């Protein structure tokens, strides 16, 4: 995923009151598969820029667990997914485990968020990714995207 998309999502969602919480980030990254999938699905419907960044980081295998809490790791540096503040990356940090189902859910979540992109190519790619693979949690986001879509 490109950084343009993250910038776009930040611009779209920055005016919303919702913000990613530590509990939501942990729910998406730690625990059993079904619970993580449900947490991911719930976050998509009300996603903000931090949520999008965290989901993208999970898809890019940039999330580790330190002392039971998720952190985003880039270039050997760890950041809190909620505040963005630097945090310690210990030797005991563990990778999150994304099985094929979770990877598919992450891809689907990112595609749903791409529906709001100003880039028509990204929106078309998102529609192709989501075809036949939409859960009810994404319907409000899809309705919003349809309401603002200018291309038939």
Describe this structure in words.
- A hairpin with a 2-residue loop joins strand 2 and strand 3.
- The longest helix has 15 residues, at 100-114.
- With 152 residues, the chain is an alpha+beta fold.
- Helix content is 52%, strand content 11%.
Short synopsis of the structure:
This protein is 52% helix and 11% strand.
List the helices and strands and how they pair.
Blueprint: H1 3-13, H2 22-29, H3 33-45, H4 49-59, E1 63-66, E2 69-74, E3 77-79, E4 86-87, E5 94-95, H5 100-114, H6 120-130, H7 139-148
Antiparallel strand pairs: 1-2, 1-5, 2-3, 3-4
Number of helices: 7
Taken from the alpha-carbon principal axes, the silhouette is: elongated
- Strand line-up across the major sheet: 4-3-2-1-5
Q: Which blocks of ≥5 consecutive residues have pLDDT under 50?
A: 3-17
Helix content: 40-55%
Instruction: Please count the beta strands (DSSP E, at least 2 residues each).
Output: 5
Average pLDDT works out at 84
Give the radius of gyration. 15 Å
Biggest beta-sheet profile: 5 strands, antiparallel
How much β-strand is present in the residues? 5-15%
How far the N terminus sits from the C terminus, by CA atoms, comes to 25 Å
- Secondary-structure element order, N to C: HHHHEEEEEHHH
| Helix and strand composition category | alpha+beta
Labels describing this entry:
5 strands; alpha+beta; disordered N terminus; elongated; 5-stranded antiparallel β-sheet; 152 residues; 7 helices
């Amino acid at each position: 995923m490109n950084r343009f998309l993250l910038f776009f999502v930040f611009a779209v969602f920055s005016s919303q009151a919702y913000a990613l919480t530590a509990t939501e980030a942990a729910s998406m990254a730690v625990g059993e598969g079904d619970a993580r999938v449900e947490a991911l699905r719930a976050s998509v419907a009300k996603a903000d820029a931090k949520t999008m960044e965290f989901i993208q980081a999970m898809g890019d295998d940039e999330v580790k667990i330190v002392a039971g809490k998720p952190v985003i790791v880039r270039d050997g540096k760890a950041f809190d997914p909620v505040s963005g503040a630097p945090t310690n990356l210990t030797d005991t940090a563990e990778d999150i485990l994304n099985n094929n189902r979770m990877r598919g859910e992450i891809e689907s979540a990112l595609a749903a968020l791409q529906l709001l992109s100003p880039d028509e190519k990204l929106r078309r790619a998102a529609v192709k990714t989501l075809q036949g693979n939409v859960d009810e949690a994404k319907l409000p986001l899809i309705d919003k995207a349809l309401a603002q879509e200018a291309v038939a």
